[in-house]
Amino acid sequence: QVQVVESGGGLVQPGDSLRLSCIASRLTSNMYFMGWFRQAPGKERELVSGISKGGGTTYYADSVKGRFSISRDNGANTVYLQMNGLNAADTAVYYCAAKRTQTITTDAYAPDWYDYWGQGTQVTVSA
After folding, report:
1. Residue-wise pLDDT tens for the chain (127 aa)?
2. CA 62/CA 68 separation, integer angstroms
3. CA distance 114 to 101
4. Distance CA 19, CA 29 (A)
5. Is 24 in contact with 116 (CB distance < 8 Å)?
6. How far apart, in whole angstroms, are the C-alpha atoms of residue 44 and residue 110?
7. What span, in angstroms and rounded, lies between the C-alpha atoms of 2 and 116?
8. Beta bridge partner(s), residue 23
9. Rg of the chain taking only CA atoms, in angstroms
10. 44: helix, coil or strand?
11. Distance (Å, rounded) from C-alpha 111 to C-alpha 44?
């Protein structure tokens, strides 16, 4: 059974950095688009960043461009989200999601598009 497990969240101060990791076991990672979503209390789950199967195409929400960086190591079935310059607006539960696909469309914005989800990791940015 496929398992997606996130780690790396925590409590940090504004301006700090965190690196989230997502390990997707029992799937052929180079066949899956991977996305990082976040959900803050009272808000909808939103796509923060995504990366294509081979890592050649990446996507970032406007709110994180220039601060977050996504990468993947298919040999280790792992996707990373490096988050720099964190601020209070980044506080949320961060989820990793996987979609087996040959093409990337605007469907990637929709949580329902994905095949597998992790349980989430909390990121709290507070002074």
Report:
1. 889 999 999 999 999 999 999 999 887 778 899 999 999 999 999 999 999 999 999 999 999 999 999 999 999 999 999 999 999 999 999 999 999 988 888 899 999 999 999 999 999 999 9
2. 10
3. 10
4. 20
5. yes
6. 11
7. 8
8. 5, 78
9. 14
10. coil
11. 10
* Tokens representing residue 96 in the block: 């990793």
Q: Which residue has the tokens 């059974």?
A: 1
Cβ atoms 38, 95 nearer than 8 A: yes
In 3D, which of 1, 4, 20 has the Cα closest to residue 122?
A: 20
Q: From CA 36, how far away is CA 59, in angstroms rounded?
A: 10
CB 30 within 8 A of CB 54: yes
Tokens 């709290």 sit at which residue? 124
